[in-house]
Amino acid sequence: KIKTTGPYMFELVDCDFSKCSTPATQGYITQVKQPVTLSFSSYEKKLDEPGELMLSDFAKFDRPPLLHLGFKALAKYRSDNGGSYPAPGDATAAQAVVDIAKAMDTDGLLGDNETAQQTVRRLASGACAILSPMCASLGGIVGQEVLKGCSAKFTPIQGFLYFDAVECLPDEILPVEEVASSGTSRYDSQIAVFGKEIQQKIMNLNYFLVGAGAIGCEMLKNWALMGVGCGPNGHVYITDMDRIEKSNLSRQFLFRNTDINSFKSATAANAAKAMNADLNITAYQEKVGAETEHLFGDDFYDKLSGVCTALDNVEARLYVDQKCLFYRLPMLESGTLGTKGNTQIVVPHMTENYGATRDPPEKSIPVCTLKNFPNQIQHTLQWARDYFEGIFKQSAEDANSYLNGELSSASEQQNTKLDTYRSIKMTLLDERPVHFEDCVVWARLKFEDLFNKQIRQLLHNFPEDQVTSSGTKFWSGSKRCPKALLFDLDSKCGDAEMKNHLDFIVAAANLRANLYGIKGRTDEEYFRQVLDNVIVPEFTPANGVKIAANESEAKQQNDEAPGDNIDDECDEIIAQLPKASELAGFKVNPIEFDKDVDEHMLFVTACSNLRALNYWIPTEDTHRSRAIAGRIIPAIATTTALVTGLVCLDLYKVIGSARKELTLDMFKNAFINLAIPFMTLSEPTPPEKTKCILKGKEWNWTAWDSLDLELGDITLKELMDHFATEYNLDISMLSHGVSILYSFFANKKKVEERKKMKMSEVVTSITKKEFPPNQLFIILELIANDLDTDDEVELPYVKFRFR
């Protein structure tokens, strides 16, 4: 029994520790959630007595009871009218629903409240419509509730959940001719809610979808059903550099088994095109970044209506965010983590941009923890992955560089030069196998080195009973005292129930064979036969071996200058290596780690588990190890459907609903957790303003603002004169990126020469780089003073169009 005594402390209640001879100083605590019995009322009873209703938007705390009343009134209307909903735009029918609601209203929710009555009218007017984004949002919630019922996992919703996006709707019910159904259009439902004018806007949108993973697939499906980019002037552009992997299929539903190894973007585009043949879509297989600005440049963004991110890392989001800021494009952002999800809507000049606020960077695992003092399975898996990269990829690439006569740049770094040449020597000479049996022997000796000898050397340096200078035990806290493993083919770990000793040998031997193009095998009897004859050298601990006990010591050792004889040792190794000409045609095959290749994961899992056994860390099976080592972000279809649906509902607002002026509070950012369940919508934060006095008037500018100049490719002098006459500013410094184009303290002769040059010529002459043909703008930063007051004026950047 547990008694919580603080945020990070608890007590064990009713436990007798009187017979314990020594106190416990290390261990693992596992939270075991206790089952809870939940009871529910009947649907009939809840319909009349709904009780407390779950909130989805805390700004609408009075909305759920009103919607409950509205849906009851709508059901009564259907019952009285042969099962039919009110026709779109039929004000009389909508008012009839309001009248029914008033008759049912025992709590006085409607009364003379025109806003509440208008909400019911809107519900009635659009009742017959089926909108893809709303189906996706509610479908995600319902799907998770079904899973809860099947699995008894997570907390179900108690009673009713009402969700509305009334901010999307026009203030007044649209006239019948604007929303009338054609009976032949697949977009009749959307037209019934938003009208024909908005549907045309949707179809003529030009949107850029960055990413074709779980969110990207779901978003593209929604867009195909909504008609985004399906008009004569509309287009969808999608890019993703990744190929489809087996593990994607469970959550990226546009892909099938036959699509494995195909590009995600092209496959998703084809699947969406199959849903809506009118979709105009172009798929790219490029990363969005500085290196692809020749493709995604000024001319590309200039034709877009907005950008939607479906990315899995913050760095890429920040890059796209800067592009949206510069081109003043809306950015639709969302993300999921298991049952958790969030959306952020970025609207030019109205909301802050994505990068305005950000989470602190994720902490990396200290090097000394990975090398010598792991205490979590994440540490051992990272170590195993790093070892895989070094032994099966980097060593092969270094050897090939030697054979090609061009060593990698790492080999020229003095700190790693000797290690690189030693690795090449082992790969091409000392440990080069001829038969598969040699690979098995190599794997057995690696086992002994990694999980026995290195551990015994560590314990030689830091014995189990060692104490620090302060008198505390060295092996305490996060430092777990390791044990050396004795090789046993029949050994099986208790947690993951895997034969890690055998698995390591089989996987390592086969991967080693792949490096050299040798055919491998996996039959256990063969391995037992070969391993019986392997002679393992005795271990003798070495003196004088330095092992860093903490991160500062590791940094100090890394910073220490290599010995003077490094080059001599390297020359000695090179002299022993076979000449590249002697190995003409020979090549080692580097192996890139792939979490979806079972052989790769078998090695990493076994390697990680063996190291975990060294340090008394609970082991994990291949499935769980794949998720950790492959850095798979948990994604489930329910959360993905919900967040993409919410984003598309806000896309309606970004487009601009008919007969409605949108304000900041109309947009909604969402934070959800389907497990608890929890859902809250909040209005975005407005952009931060900077105050300055320009031309005698106060100007509060934000990150969305810039000084836009479309004067053609004028000279530097003409630019400075323009600022003096137009803005009453004297430029004291002008820069482009890291290059200073003009400064008041620069060489006078050089300044006069530059003043006569066109701005594009000034930039290219200093940066020594030509502008790409698709670049239209030059970004300029300036320091300027008011000509009247001589005060420095804080200004945004200058967006100078030279083409």
Automatic annotation (TrEMBL):
<dbReference type="InterPro" id="IPR000594">
    <property type="entry name" value="ThiF_NAD_FAD-bd"/>
</dbReference>
<dbReference type="GO" id="GO:0006511">
    <property type="term" value="P:ubiquitin-dependent protein catabolic process"/>
</dbReference>
<dbReference type="InterPro" id="IPR045886">
    <property type="entry name" value="ThiF/MoeB/HesA"/>
</dbReference>
<dbReference type="InterPro" id="IPR035985">
    <property type="entry name" value="Ubiquitin-activating_enz"/>
</dbReference>
<dbReference type="GO" id="GO:0005737">
    <property type="term" value="C:cytoplasm"/>
</dbReference>
<feature type="domain" description="Ubiquitin-activating enzyme E1 C-terminal">
    <location>
        <begin position="667"/>
        <end position="798"/>
    </location>
</feature>
<comment type="pathway">
    <text>Protein modification; protein ubiquitination.</text>
</comment>
<keyword id="KW-0833">Ubl conjugation pathway</keyword>
<keyword id="KW-0436">Ligase</keyword>
<dbReference type="Pfam" id="PF09358">
    <property type="entry name" value="E1_UFD"/>
</dbReference>
<dbReference type="InterPro" id="IPR038252">
    <property type="entry name" value="UBA_E1_C_sf"/>
</dbReference>
<feature type="active site" description="Glycyl thioester intermediate">
    <location>
        <position position="368"/>
    </location>
</feature>
<comment type="similarity">
    <text>Belongs to the ubiquitin-activating E1 family.</text>
</comment>
<dbReference type="Pfam" id="PF10585">
    <property type="entry name" value="UBA_E1_SCCH"/>
</dbReference>
<dbReference type="GO" id="GO:0005634">
    <property type="term" value="C:nucleus"/>
</dbReference>
<keyword id="KW-0547">Nucleotide-binding</keyword>
<dbReference type="GO" id="GO:0004839">
    <property type="term" value="F:ubiquitin activating enzyme activity"/>
</dbReference>
<dbReference type="InterPro" id="IPR033127">
    <property type="entry name" value="UBQ-activ_enz_E1_Cys_AS"/>
</dbReference>
<dbReference type="Pfam" id="PF00899">
    <property type="entry name" value="ThiF"/>
</dbReference>
<keyword id="KW-0067">ATP-binding</keyword>
<dbReference type="InterPro" id="IPR042063">
    <property type="entry name" value="Ubi_acti_E1_SCCH"/>
</dbReference>
<dbReference type="GO" id="GO:0006974">
    <property type="term" value="P:DNA damage response"/>
</dbReference>
<dbReference type="InterPro" id="IPR018075">
    <property type="entry name" value="UBQ-activ_enz_E1"/>
</dbReference>
<dbReference type="Pfam" id="PF16191">
    <property type="entry name" value="E1_4HB"/>
</dbReference>
<protein>
    <recommendedName>
        <fullName>E1 ubiquitin-activating enzyme</fullName>
        <ecNumber>6.2.1.45</ecNumber>
    </recommendedName>
</protein>
<dbReference type="InterPro" id="IPR018965">
    <property type="entry name" value="Ub-activating_enz_E1_C"/>
</dbReference>
<dbReference type="InterPro" id="IPR032420">
    <property type="entry name" value="E1_4HB"/>
</dbReference>
<dbReference type="InterPro" id="IPR019572">
    <property type="entry name" value="UBA_E1_SCCH"/>
</dbReference>
<dbReference type="GO" id="GO:0005524">
    <property type="term" value="F:ATP binding"/>
</dbReference>
